[in-house]
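OP here, attaching both records as promised.
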Amino acid sequence: MQAMGDGSLSLARFSSYMRQDYLFLIDYCRALAIASAKSPDLASMGHFAGLLDETLNSEMELHRGFCSDLGITAAELEATNPEAATVAYTDHLLRTAYDGSIEELAAALLPCQWGYDEVGRLLEHRVRPDPDSFHSRWVAGYCAPEYRKLTEWLKGFVDEIGAVAPAEKQRRMQGAFRASTRYEYLFWDAAWGG
């Protein structure tokens, strides 16, 4: 994040990260769709559908635009081979989506959403706005009011459903959250070349 913030992140690293993140987002969208279907009420169903729409039609479009600017076609982007960290993370999310409860799934989805929101907040005032800078354009995407609003909703939803969940379900929620947090770290580490 420091390299993104100070503008020193290389195009090669950024390109590799964008390819892997795009693949991740495809399965993240699948998990969001399942979360919407598993939602306990229409309001939360609508919020998950909104998060799905924002991810599928805004965030992924941002990725396609960046990749196009880097000379990567949509076909090349979608044909990218996923790295081990990407596969591990998406397998965890999809396994939780299909086999877990809505409580576990929401907890598993939260670290990604919350983490990018925090990165956006951290870098928002460190990166000079510049429409020609991929650093600036990337940060702006995670500072958007819509993104922040959805993040705050998801945090509140996890708190709300966790507060009334039985102890065993709370334990599984915590496990799903911790696993996703670990996978977030491994994903970022792999993007850096670790």
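Record two, same layout:
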Amino acid sequence: MTAADDGVDAAGETREPMTEDTKFGHFAFAETSAALGDAGGYRDTGRVVQLRTEAADAFVAMQAAAQDVGVHLVPISGYRTVGYQDGLFGRAIDRYGTPEEAAVWVAPPGYSEHHTGLAIDIGDLDHPEADVEVSFEATPAFDWLKNNADRFGFELSFPDGNPQGVSYEPWHWRFIGELATP
């Protein structure tokens, strides 16, 4: 299965949802059945972040290129099952009060790009306080990603003011392969 099979336009100019089904602005995504590979460990937790093999390989190459210029990318979260996402969404409802409010911050189960194995949350190893925070945009890691991620097949999933109405997530990137290269 290629990135295109998960809803990336063949021309690379637009991204179509896997289906027209949406929930609170999030498109539906099926769990991948593709092989997963290791994208690296999340800080010193012992937890290994997994992505589809081609995305994991691209992330590791991107991480090495950033390291070469003193930027330290760290994988935070990658592939998630629908069941795992259900737990995250439930905790978000507890925190924000309603499913609608929770969905501004966390995709409902069945509606997360993380189910595809192509989405990754990225942090800056030197700035753990910015993990999954808008303040990540002020880190060297985000600056490097803005200027280089496309060379490795990644694009920002939820830019500020995105048409889905999903909150701005400077840490959330998706692998679209060769379609991202200029």
